Amino acid sequence: MVQVALADYLAALSAGRLVSFPTDTVPALAAAPEASDRIYQLKQRSTSKPLILMAASFADLRPYLAGDEAAVTVWTRLIERYWPGALTLVLPASDRLPPAMNLTGTASLGVRVPAHPLAQYILARSGPLATTSVNRSGQPPLQTMAAIEAEFPQLVTLSPQAIAALYPRFSSPPPAPDQPQGSGQPSTVVAWQDQGWQVLRQGALNFEQ
Fold first, then answer.
1. Are 178 and 24 in contact (CB under 8 A)?
2. How would you write the chain as a 3-class SS string?
3. How far apart are CA 109 and CA 199, in angstroms?
4. Residue 34 domain-assigned (yes or no)
């Protein structure tokens, strides 16, 4: 991996580079939304499989979503209960969504705020990022930074020195590079359909209607 300081990491994102960072589920492969087509190329992923837009807060995600006040009120109830956390919401997308992240022209978008201090710290400074798990399409997600480095040496990550400087801000120490960076389970995915919620995937979070 290309290990850099935080300022260089954020500059790499602005330049359209692919990065990785830990989350509460599995490590993320991420790019600026305008460069998200590069994620598909690296993973050899079908463009019919959507990416998740991840951010530090719902307020950061709101411009990418289309919904009236009544719908947003219902979404907010769920968000206040489960976010930050391992729940991905599939909601109507606005025209703010870049074409590179919506190659099939779908009208919906998966969004999430992760419950991981380093992920939130990065996202608060980068803005929303297009994300998915770090793996070749059809293979299981990579869970350690050591495995990611071996499989995807071109990805940009924070250097050990940058991580050591940041983690005193957080309540727990960073895991070792050869240890899982999260729960190892994917997020639970629920979609807003016909004014109600439909579970598309049961994952790390036990979703209750």
1. no
2. CEEECHHHHHHHHHCCCCEEECCCCCCEEEECHHHCHHHHHHHCCCCCCCCEEECCCHHHHHHHECCCHHHHHHHHHHHHHHCCCCEEEEEEECCCCCHHHCCCCCCEEEEECCCCHHHHHHHHHHCCEEEEECCCCCCCCCCCHHHHHHHCCCCEEECHHHHHHHHHHCCCCCCCCCCCCCCCCCCEEEEEECCEEEEEECCCCCCCC
3. 15
4. yes
Burial of 209 (0-12, 13-18, 19+ CB in 10 A): exposed
Domain count of the chain? Answer: 1
Span 54-72, pLDDT tens digits: 999 999 999 999 999 999 9
Task: Give residue 30's domain range.
Answer: 2-201
Amino acid, single-letter form, for residue 12: A
pTM of the predicted structure, to 2 decimals: 0.95
